[in-house]
Structure prediction request, 201 residues.
Amino acid sequence: MATFPTRESDIVVLAQSIIQGLTTQAETFTRPPYTAPEIRTQLDAFLALRDALIRQQALVSEAVTAKQGGLDKLADALRSVLRYIENAAASEDQLAHFGWSGRRTPGSQPLPGQCRMLEAPRRGPGWIFLDWKEPSEGGKPSYYVVEMRELPDGAWKQVATAVESEITLANQVSGKRLEYRAYAANKAGKGQVSNVVEVDA
Prediction:
């Protein structure tokens, strides 16, 4: 006996086949629980909802890209101001007025530890949400770097930076098997890379 499909595309194909069967075999199957027009109405309703979701996902992807771009510009501006303040301040106390912890002597800050438990709990067409646990050892991370490669043997390349231990990546390649990893970094250098997450884009 055939197994009822679970994939969305297979269910759509089955619906189309049933509509055709109920139409061409109407004289044999005269009292189905749902007629061909009723199945067609439900199929059309589903396809409209699916198309609406695709449009919304595209808007979300654009919004995520815009948000990340805004955050990157803000972070760059803040770093520039902090560099100026660090150079112009006469004392550590002056830096505290800006919510900044002050200068560190070279080599005084240890490397950050390894990012932990990298996951990809949500994704859609062209985008993926990643989160991870910050290092439990080492120096405090200043930011995180996310890298990606195409399987089976693509080279790792940087795709984003984040100031929090999560990020939504937009405009990702489709139809590929991908791997992602992350590491923390600060003025002392970069920490050990996290575990690897594999996804089918």
Remarks:
- The helical segments are 8-24, 36-88, 92-96.
- DSSP finds three helices and eight strands in the chain.
- The two ends are 32 Å apart (CA to CA).
